[in-house]
Every structure is written in structure tokens, then in C-alpha cells.
Write a structure and sequence with these properties.
By secondary structure, the chain is α+β, with helices and mostly antiparallel strands. The protein has 4 helices and 14 strands. The strands form 2 sheets. Strands 1, 2, 3, 4, 5, 10, 11, 12, 13 and 14 form a 10-stranded antiparallel β-sheet that branches. A 4-stranded antiparallel β-sheet has the order 6-7-8-9, with no helix packed on it.
Length: 228
């Protein structure tokens, strides 16, 4: 009796089951992100920086989790959503010489000993327990935070131009001798689109947030969102 076909069939079944189990256990990452306040922008001759207060929520699900949830919904049952990411933070988008970069700063950063609101002092922008260097936020000492926190408001913005409450507005900015338009639009509550309109070039997308839309992201992007 030739048992080879049976052995081959068994091997195929085992490999298939192993592949299915492996696929079912692979995590996928879904996130929601929405803007919950008006953006603000600063710019000088070299760069434009936009600060957007936002909320990021996310979860990690396997294929098994998603299938189980779909089956339960067919029977009218709901499943509890467990968010592994739920953060209020600032989206910081920087444009310089045609390059767009993005970073995040948590609104409840423990370095914010005095909860300094974004404000200029001595020509520099202080916020979130640090000072904006032009490329990143550099932490400052508790003594420096206390000094800024207890000082009167200053009108000295140094080399920067400032635009507040950027919602459904077009703001003219000058960068490297050219005039551009910073455009912000709110299609719906929690949603936000930001573009930079440059002469003789297509609009440059800077940021888009959709509070009611779930996005699937890579593990690397999910880790970036979780890491301030």
C-alpha cells in the first residue's frame, strides 16, 4: 500500500493550518486622530512650523480578534474596545526648503512643571516644558520654567511671525523671499486639512486628520505615535 499520497496530504494540511494560525495571530494597528483645537503657526525666513492640538487613539488587533468581533456583531452583540493608545498631544509639522517633517509632544508631558502655555519670552517660543530651537523642543530647567511662568507677557517674538486660531483661514507667509499661502480647512468637527500653496507648484500637503476614520498603520508608525 502506497502511503506517500496520504503523507503528502497530511503535510499540506499541517503547513496550511500553521500558516492560518500564524496569519490569525499577526497584529494589525488601527488609529484615529482628530484635531480638538485651532492650530497656530510660526515662521521666519527659513521655515514654517504649525502646532496642532490633537487626540490620537489606537489599538492593536489580530485577524482572529477582528473575525470574532464581526461574528459577534452578526448576533447583535458588542465587544469592548480596548485602546492601547489614547493621548492628547501636539502635532508639530515643520516645513523647510521643500521638506516636511513631523513630531509629537504630549500635552501632559511630566516636564511641564508649570504647564507653560505656548508663549514667546525674550524672543523665544516656550511650550511644554521646553523651548523651540527651530528644529526641536529643547527641555529647560525647572528654574527656567518658573521664570517664564511667573513673568509678564512679552511682545518680543524675535525673528518669528505668528498666526493664531488657524481654522478655515488662508494666511500669507514669506519663506526664503517667496510668498506662499498656508491654508487650513475643517471639513467637520475634529477633522483638519493643512496645505501650503506655493507659486508655480502643486499644493503641498502638510497634515490631514480625520476624527471619524479608522486608519491601518504600520507597526513602525504606531510606535512613533506612542513615543513622544
Amino acid at each position: 500500500m502506497n502511503t506517500r499520497p496520504r503523507a503528502v496530504t497530511s503535510a499540506i494540511v499541517v503547513v496550511t493550518l500553521a500558516a492560518v494560525l500564524y496569519w490569525a495571530s499577526l497584529p494589525t494597528y488601527q488609529v484615529f486622530a482628530g484635531a480638538f483645537g485651532p492650530p497656530r503657526a510660526i515662521w521666519n525666513d527659513d521655515q514654517l512650523v504649525v502646532f496642532v492640538p490633537s487626540r490620537h487613539m489606537g489599538r492593536s488587533l489580530t485577524a482572529f480578534d477582528r473575525t470574532r468581533g464581526a461574528v459577534l456583531r452578526l448576533f447583535g452583540k458588542t465587544t469592548e474596545t480596548r485602546w492601547s493608545l489614547d493621548l492628547n498631544r501636539w502635532d508639530i509639522v515643520r516645513y523647510e526648503r521643500g521638506v516636511v517633517s513631523r513630531m509629537f509632544v504630549d500635552l501632559l508631558d511630566p516636564r511641564q512643571a508649570f504647564r507653560i502655555r505656548a508663549r514667546f519670552f525674550d524672543g523665544r517660543l516656550y511650550m511644554f516644558g521646553g523651548v523651540w530651537t527651530g528644529r526641536t523642543l529643547e527641555p529647560v530647567s525647572i528654574e527656567e520654567q518658573r521664570r517664564v511662568h511667573t513673568s509678564p507677557d512679552s511682545t518680543d517674538v524675535g525673528p518669528w511671525n505668528v498666526a493664531e486660531a488657524l481654522e478655515n483661514r488662508d494666511v500669507q507667509v514669506r519663506l526664503r523671499g517667496g510668498t506662499m499661502i498656508l491654508r487650513t480647512r475643517r471639513p467637520a468637527f475634529g477633522d483638519l486639512d493643512i496645505e501650503l500653496l506655493r507659486p508655480h507648484l502643486p499644493p503641498l500637503h502638510l497634515l490631514s486628520l480625520r476624527a471619524g476614520v479608522e486608519r491601518t498603520v504600520s507597526a513602525a508608525e504606531y510606535r512613533l505615535l506612542k513615543t513622544p
